[in-house]
Amino acid sequence: MRLSEEHIVRRLRPLIDSGKTDWKRVDALTDREIEEAIASDPDAAPLLDEEWFRTAKLVMPERKVPVSMRIDREVLDWFKRAGRGYLSRMHAVLRAYVAAQSKTKTRKASKTAKSRSQRKSAGAKSKVVSRARSKGVRRHAK
Fold this sequence. Notes:
Layout: H1 23-28, H2 31-40, H3 50-55, H4 73-81, H5 86-112, H6 122-134
């Protein structure tokens, strides 16, 4: 099948709105003025000098593992409603969950790692069990 000119649709990207930026003033700034503006901006990253490049180490991110999984429709739709990048957002949520769980386990581990003098004696444990039994708590046999 051969395409003819009448079947080709051309779409032009809309002109980018330059907003309220005074580009002539920006173009007229000297390097020194730009550096001073960066230095006075608390949100700006520091300028990278030769020393930084000498000591910098390239760290490649760990490769992601392709996975196929079933997700509830409403969960997927919720992420998709936010637009492009929904899989990255889902990954970020999972990563945050893992980080939160890791912190919880670390706290639990530090609480259980008490010194020997702080641990309950075997006698205190048996008192707890006997109190539970006296209140009607029973173990169920399988």
